[in-house]
Amino acid sequence: MTGGHTLRGTMVPHHRPWPRQVLDRYDQPALPAFLAASDAELFDLWADAGVVHAALRDPASGAFAVASVPCPKGRFASIAAVRPGAIRLERAIRDLFGYEPVGSADARPWLDHGRWPQAAPLGGEPGGERMEQASETPDGPPPYPFLPVEGDGLHQIPVGPVHAGIIEPGHFRFHASGETVVRLEARLGYVHRGIEGLLAGTDLARAARLIGRVSGDSTVAYAYAFARAAEAATGTEPPPRAVWLRALMAEMERLANHLGDIGAICNDAAFALMHAHTGILRERMLQAAEAAFGHRLMMDRIVPGGTAGDLDAAGIQAIRDAAAEIGKRFPGLVRLYDQTASLQDRTVSTGIVRPDYVALYAAGGFVGRASGRSFDARRDAPYPPYDRLRFDVPVRRDGDVNARVWIRIREVEQSLQLIEQILAGLPRGQHRTELGPSSGEGVGLVEGFRGDVMVWLRIGADQRVERCRPRDPSWFQWPLLETAIEGNIVADFPLCNKSFNCSYAGHDL
Amino acid sequence: MRRLLWQALRRPVTLPRPAASESALAELAESVDLAAKRRLGRSLSIRQVDAGSCNGCELEIHALNNAVYDLERYGVRFVASPRHADVLLVTGPVTTAMREALERTWTATPEPKWVVAAGDCAAGGGLFADSYAVAGGVADVVPVDLHIGGCPPTPTQLLRGLLALLEATPDNVRTRK
Ligand code: SF4
User: Fold this and answer.
1) pTM for the full model?
2) Which residues on B lie below 8 Å from A260 (Cβ)?
3) Which of A32, A67, A322, A451 could pair covalently with A284 via S-S, beta carbons 3.0-4.6 A apart?
4) 3-state secondary structure of A403
């Protein structure tokens, strides 16, 4: 794929829209060798019965491909040394399937806290081996060894999983020297609900509802990616009106979340006034969503084959009114952000993410775009109707909290324009069609507010899900938060964390 | 500029008080220790616990604090520690990894205390009930006094449930029942 390096294998038919090839089993180290020699970006790494799949993108051509590595005897060659974004993905594969990433430097579990009734709960599928061993001992679960930090005067600060605010559960272990953070290590997995296990064997309607609950703040993006994967797998063309309605919902979701985030970041910098204003604007958009689509977060509104309902004139008016109000009030808030020295003092040069890290992890969303990686699935893995819409993808290189705020500000402005264009160009006709009866494999990649959301799906002959893998952008953003905080003071962690706003639920699944 | 922004906030954006939820009052009549409730008076401190939510419920709980719903005008506020709380507002199916944290948070909350399970997941595990990684609904782990349904419950639904908790005195529960 990149620069003369190729992966050799057998092409798999009925995998759409990207090609998938199965690498020769005796060529197991082919994948790490290929990645070491190329600059292919890792988009996901996940297990299937007897196989590990890697979704890759060639940044030069923009082409995507899936490479599948057979892992007989439950072992596969680790790629973490050449793509550090894979470290946690490999640990998750070991936890869920029991497949061992050979050569991985990190033997610790990740999603498995030793409290599930059995180890490797998904490894019982054909090709895998079920390991019926309860991990919890009478003394409770095994302790989790955090990475050691040595030095004079260091102290540890454990935080979570229950936090002081209304946020999701996760554990953060700070090592600090005085006020300065020497190392932050996150431990996640508290919100693991076993979604990949629940998806297997279920029908597409229930699967769509489950996928819409991977991460509630991105419910539109997930349902959107799943619908596109299901349509790709079955060779179904959704009606044009549905295609435009989906983009409309996606932009409304992006707008509402960005407004919430901008306010929340300022709030963590002790500037509550901004939070109060953006809270009202966010609420306007959610109320418009309820009026237009019957649900404030637009949950279950995108389905394979189209949308669950249509949009009527009153709904269009509600969205127009909300967008007009936001368009009128937002510029004043942007000026307020820009001109408040006490706020800038907290956000500028705080929590810097290095552009080379972002490139190495192929981090998406505002985290990537604030540090020089401009990828946006709407433009770089284009899907309709975005190929017919005009919008800019804002990029910065300074990578601090301030840069992440500005990317969101610019994206709010872009989303307002996109909503206008979509409402003006909305085609008439059906909003839903039946899925084709064929089975197959499909991928859906859409740009959620937080970054690219990917869903990979294999549908069996009975139109049931054989294997479905939803991947949150947070997988490649969480590790960078740990790098961003280094050298900052402990008190700036909430600010850094909020400027990332990674999903716990989306990551933990 | 600053003055303009303050004025924008003074527009009447706050919604009028919704009625307390009848079904919540009925549920409370069954379960809540109303004598204890009387001791508390008319304000509540809430500690929110996400025990495995998709974060949709959290978004709507957050919205309670915005100027449109303005929860604090009823004397209800969110606090940072269970030790300061009268109410645990719990969301999500309880994952096996969060079970102990929820139990410990409940233990750390002083009596008298109430547990409100918010959202369909909290009610019985929702779509996740059958998973190997889920211990069940909130009531499978700690005693629940009140359920607020919805996926997620809207801020208005949440508010109506919480107001029922605030209004559930022996007298009015009996008359409404
Ligand atoms: S009830 Fe719905 S919104 Fe709340 S956690 Fe469950 S799935 Fe998410």
Assistant:
1) 0.94
2) 59, 62
3) A322
4) helix
